[in-house]
Each structure stands twice: as C-alpha cells, then as structure tokens.
Amino acid sequence: MAFVAPKESYSGKVSEVTIGTDKTISFGGENVLPFQSFEGTVPHRPVIAYEIQDVPPGDWPETVKSVYEAVSSDPVSWAKFCEDKLNAKAIALRLIGTHPDRENRSAEDAKRVVRDVLSAIKVPLIILGSNHVEKDSEVLVAVAEAAKDKNCIIGKAQEGNYKTITAAAMAHNHKLIAMSELDINLSKQLNILITQMGFPKERLITDPMCSALGYGIEYTYSVMERIRLAALTQNDAVMQPPMLGDVGTYVWKVKETQASENELPHWGSLKERSITWEAVTAAAMLIAGAELLIMRHPEAVQVVERFVDELMQ
Amino acid sequence: MALTGVEIFKLLPKTNCKKCGHPTCLAFAMKLAQRQASLDQCPDVSDEAKRILGEASAPPIRPVSFGTGDRTLKMGEEMVLFRHEKKFVNPTVFAVEIKDTEADEKINSIVEDVLSSEIDRVGQKLRVDAILINNVSEDVSRFETVIKTVSSKAANVPLIISTTSPTVAEAALKLVASWRPILYGANKDNAEQMANLAKTYKVPLGVKAEGLEALSSLTEKIKSLGVEELVIDSGAIKAKDIIEHNTLIRRAALKKNFKPLGYPVINFCEREDKVLEALIASLGIMKYSSIVVLSSVEKWKNLSLFTLRQNIYTDPQVPMQVEQKIYRIGEPKPDSPLLITTNFSLTYFIVSGEIENSKVPSRLAVMDCEGLSVLTAWAAGKFTAAKIAQFIKESGIENEISHKELIIPGYVAILSGAIEEKLPGWKVTVGPREANGIPAFLRQRMS
Lengths: 313, 447
Ligand code: B12
Ligand code: SF4
Description:
- The complex is a heterodimer of chains A (313) and B (447).
- With 313 residues, chain A is an alpha/beta fold.
- Chain A is built from 10 helices and 10 strands.
- In chain A, β6, α5 (162-171) and β7 form a beta-alpha-beta unit.
- In chain B, the strands form 5 sheets. Chain B has an 8-stranded parallel sheet, with helices on one face. A 3-stranded mixed sheet of chain B has the order 13-15-14, sandwiched between helices.
- In chain B, α5 runs parallel beside α6, α6 (166-176) packs parallel to α7 (191-201) and α14 (385-395) crosses α15 (416-422).
- The longest helix of chain B has 17 residues, at 239-255.
- At the A-B interface, α7, α9 and α10 of A face α8, α9, α10 and α11 of B.
- The structure holds cobalamin (B12) and iron/sulfur cluster.
- Cobalamin (B12) sits between chains B (319, 339, 341, 344, 346-347, 350-351, 371-376, 378-380, 407-411, 431-432, 434-435, 438) and A (181-183, 186, 211, 215-216, 219).
C-alpha cells in the first residue's frame, strides 16, 4: 500500500484584514486550517497586540504589572514603551477606566486618551471598550470619531450594542470586532446582523469569546475550530472573518497566574508558571484558528512569536 | 472503515442455517454491522471472510499500550480529527528524556521530579507518565547502569528504551522487559533485528523513518515480520513538520483507512527554551501526539501541560461534574457556615479548595445544574432562586444546622432577595465574586 498524502482543498478562504496607516499590518487570508501551509496558502503570520489601559493596571497581578511599573501611569508612555522597547506590532488600548463600576471615566476622557495615544505611535491601534454594554456604545462611538481614518480596530460590538458601534466604525473607516458568547450560532447571527447594516464583511473580526487555560479553554477552542471549518468547507461568507483571541485579560485573573510558590509549592515558580499560562493559552487559540491575539506579558509574547516562527517555517 | 450490513452479508455463507442464533444470514450481518454480535457465532464463515471482516472492524488507529499494572498507558484508538465531533480517547503520554551521558545527580534529580510530579486537578490525578532512557553514550554497560538506577528508584514508571543498536536493546530488555517498555527503536537499517527483539520480549516497538512515505513502508515491513504493536515517528521536530505530519497521519488512518500509518505517534518536543518546549508539547497535545517527549519536567511547566491535556481530552458533550449533595469541609459544627454552588467539577474543586484554604470548617451545598458553572447555570435558568430554595428544603440541611444563613456566590448577588422570599426564615448572604476571596471572607466572619 503506497502512501498518498490525503490533502484537502477547501472552497472557502479567511478574509484578509489590514490595519493601521503609518505602519500597516495584515492578517488572515489563508485558505487552509491553521498553519497547514502544506495544502494551501498562509499569506500572513498571526498578529499579537500588546494590551495597555487608559488607567493604571492596579488589578493586574504583580508578575505582569511590574513590567510596566515605570510607564503604566500614563497610557501614552505605556504605548510608546510597547512600540519602542518591546517592538509591538500593534497595540490594544482597553478603555477599562470607563466602566461604571471602575473609574467611570467619560467618553470625552476616552477620546482624549485615544487621540494622545494615536499621535504618539506609528503601529496600528486596537481600541476596546470596558465590556459594559451601554457604556461601550457611548464610548466606542466617541472614540471611533476621534480616531477617524486611522484604520483602527474598534470593539467589541455585542448583541446588545452592535447597532451604534457598527454605524460608528462604518462612518469613520475602522475595522470592527463582533463578540458573542461561545456559541457558533450566536456568532454567525451577530455577523449577519452587522453585515445587514451594510458593514462590509471584509472589515469584520470575530471574537467567539476567549477563556483561559483551565477555565473553559476547550469551549473557545472548539467553537473556533467549528467556525473555521464552516468558513473553509462550506465557504460560508459570514463565518470568514479572522478571529480574535483576547488572551491576556482572561489569563491574568486566574489563580495560576497569581498564587505564590510558597502558598502552592506543587505548582512551581510563579513567574514561569504565569508566563507559560499566557503563552499556552495563546498557542491553543492560534492552533484553533485565531489570527489576532491580545496579550500582556512581553516574555509570553516573545515565546509565542518564536512558536509562530517554527510553525511558519 | 467499518463495513455496512449488506457488505458483510456478501461475505457470509448465505445458507440461513440459523446456527448463529439469528433467523437469516442478513439479520446476523446487520447485527455485526452494529457491533452487537461477534463473527465467531457463525461456525461456517470462511477464512477469507474472517480476514476481511477482521481488518475492517479493527480500529483505524491501533491500540497500543506499555507499562504494567495500574500504570499501564493506553494509546491509539482515536476516531476523530476534531474534538467537537467526539471525545478524544487516550490522552497524550508525557515522557521525560534521560540521556545516559548525564551525570548521576542530574539523572536522580529528573527521576525525583517525575516521582513528585503528581498533582490533583478537578478530581483527576495527573503526573509525568513515563521516562525515556536514551543510550546517547552508545555504551552498553553505562546504559544498563542507568536503567537499573532509574528502575530501582522509579519502580512502576513506564519506560521507553531508546537505542538503535540491537545489542544494546537486548541488554536493556533483559533487565526490564517484564515492565513492558517501548523499544524505540527500529529504523530501515535494523528493522529485522529490532522486530525480532520486540517479538521475543513481547514489547511494543518504536519505528522511525524520515517522512511519511518511508515510515509507511517501514511499518509494513515490520508488520510482515509479525510485530504490530508499533509507535511511529516521522522524524518531525519543527512545529511546522509536527502539525503537517501528524495531521496527514491522522487523516490517512481515519479517512483512508490506511493501515501503515494507523499507529500512535511519538513526538520529540525538546527545546533549549523551556517555555517554547511547553508550546511545542501543547501543539502535540492538540494535534494528535500519543507521546510527547520533554527534556525536563518543572512543576510550573507540568501544570500547564497537564491542564491543557485535561481540557482537550474532556468529553465535549458532557462537562465534568460532581454529585449533588452537601459536602462537609473540615469538621463543620451545627453553627458552621453553609455555602452554595453548582456541580460543575471545576467550580466545585476551586470553591472547595478555597474553603479548605480558609481553615474554617464549612458545609458546601452543591446543586445539580447539569455540570454548568455558576454564571452559565444562572444564565441557562438552572441556578435560580426557586430551584435553590427547593434544593435547600429537600436536602434536609435544616435539621443538621443551628442557623438559617446561606452564602451565595457573588456573581449571583441578584438572586439574594428572591431566595429569601422563597425560603422563609432564611438569611441570604452574598459572598465574594471570585473564589479566591473566600478565605478572607470566611475568616473575617469568624472574628
Ligand atoms: C465555558 C462557558 C460556557 C460553556 C459551559 C461550561 C460549563 N460547564 O459551565 C457553554 C459553552 C456550554 C456555555 C453556554 C452558555 N453560556 Co457560558 N460561559 C462560559 C465561560 C467562558 C466560562 C464559565 C466557566 O467555566 N467558569 C469557570 C467557573 C469555575 O466559574 P464559576 O462557576 O462562576 O465559579 C467562580 C465564581 O462564581 C466563584 N464561585 C463559584 N461558586 C461559588 C460559591 C460561593 C459561595 C462563592 C462565594 C463564590 C463562588 O468561584 C469560581 C472561581 O472564582 C463564561 C465566561 C467566563 N469567562 O466566565 C461564560 C458565561 C458564564 N456564559 C454566559 C452565557 C450567557 C451562556 C449561555 C446562556 C449563552 C450562550 N453563550 O450560549 C449558554 C447557556 C448554557 C445552556 N446550557 O443553555 C455568560 C453569562 C452572562 C450572565 N452574566 O448571565 C458568561 C458570563 C459569558 C459572558 N461574559 O457573557 N458557557
Ligand atoms: S450461522 Fe452463519 S451461515 Fe448460518 S445463518 Fe448464521 S450467518 Fe448464516
């Protein structure tokens, strides 16, 4: 019995998204399952964006907070640090301080931060709300305007607020993240609603909702695999946007990234453990199909980049 | 590929003699197709039919095991490419490599790491499963010494004996064949001798060739020599090659029923950078490795790998769950606190772990919510005020405790009023949102 490589060819293709103006970067565009370049084309590496916030990261665990100690009191210096010192390819600014249960900063404050950060950096910017459905629809509409024509990614549009956010992203020429909660049908439904408003599917990014290693990652993993299979095998256009893995925010709140080695000797060194936790979560998202990751710890980002090097050749 | 009832029928004697206990050959064929009957019930079936049916009904990826007793490691038997289709069957084996050129201290410390690697996560015991001893020295007596050291310290830990020299292999097998190690292994130059050793000593054989074509011909050759318990290595080291080879191997076995690659796969994931090594091993876990070989087994690295393996190999249809009941943590007295949560095992183990950490003896009421987490169960209407009230009433807990206070998870604070309404006389206290707030919360109540 001679071996014949059982290669697949798919009818569909992931859409290709380019972001930024000064320095642009592209992701997506492949017509195969993740990293399976032996049977098709994978034109781009996945992109990893560094997460920063509009307010100091008081709630981040020490291991990752300490990296940004000197810069994180000011979003502009934080962003510059990521671009200049860490060679960030993109930056994700989370406007967590606008959350009503947090600092409850206004949409005006958010606009100012976005303008300041945009004028300080050349790499593309991803602008995220605080994940408060009502407040986000106010804040994200304002910042989409402040970032007009800067070709940013705005997010996240959810079932409860997609109309205003989509309209703003459309009017000001941005890409848009559509997030639903770990359900392939809900994800498809939201993408349909958004494209029905006239938003081009080529500018969409799907966030099927991330989860950390050990805390439901298998659900995100399988939803992503199913979305990708639908995009490729059924050539289902609304399933073809590239996918986001919003890794850092989920990872850096679980016990494995916080408990000291004294407290739990059988878990080993906290520093390596927490960085590995973020890196393994990210790797799982990539293998499941994510083309865009948002991460926090530079050492985790770097090792995932090396992992991608090995996967791409 | 499994045969259909009609395809099987064509191979039967078609005499309808009923000796198999079925009215007709066709009826028997249908039962066979559904795996509800076994072929030896028909006394008249031809050898040819036996052979065809035997091959067709064999699992597309052969089951192979090594080690003995309760530490036996099962591999193979996988039926799908994607975990959402059906549960992945036999979890990836973690093996750490010991080179016989290492100093004795180093060897001892790796063995220690293996022996102390066991942790408990959501009720499962997880550990480094096996040790690969590599004859890098090419010296028989050194290899024997190291094997003796390892096997005396780590009795029962399944072994992989790595050498390409039949002489060395035989010396090693004389020491430990009864533990059923994998002999790794055979290549195109030593295939006959290694196959003979595997047969003589009754151990599974690791087979290595560069690339899938060469690997297929080599496994066919070895199979024709009578050895079928194989573990295969396509020579893939780089992540790109691992994902390509492992995907093509799994597809060939499952979709083409291509027997020469229908065996468990071993991948070497070792890297200078230990975090990168963890990522390569993670790739193996997700993409079809039956054995990943590691260079070291630090606790922090193990924890991620154990967890990923557990997550990827859970049943996608059934969340892991624990029994509905009131669990006693520590030695609770009648006035000890009563907390409530859902029966998703992850939730239960996190919450009960934190209650233990608090050192405050407590009762934890675990309510059946079909294995959903607190918020998911709440959103799905399974963790509602009415259901919680009913559960508390029916549990009989009221006769066991001297108070009527129920502590609920912070994320479902919104339920507190409604539970109080449905449980007259009870006071509902809202606990912290995250379980790691529980120790401080419980201790503060005590003072
Ligand atoms: C995995 C997951 C699923 C899985 C189910 C997994 C499972 N076995 O439960 C699936 C995909 C099936 C699912 C489905 C749904 N999900 Co869901 N899911 C999640 C996800 C990502 C993780 C849940 C999890 O495993 N958490 C880990 C466990 C350990 O957390 P936990 O049980 O809450 O326990 C923590 C605390 O509550 C606390 N705690 C627990 N018990 C106690 C007790 C006391 C006394 C105290 C003090 C503390 C305490 O300690 C724990 C650790 O800190 C969350 C989002 C997230 N990241 O949290 C959404 C989430 C829970 N899901 C959500 C929703 C809406 C749903 C669906 C209704 C809709 C949908 N997307 O399809 C369905 C409903 C399911 C059904 N059968 O109908 C929402 C709920 C929103 C809300 N506030 O109502 C969430 C929060 C997502 C979101 N951000 O919107 N989901
Ligand atoms: S025993 Fe064999 S030949 Fe007789 S009816 Fe059954 S299947 Fe047919």
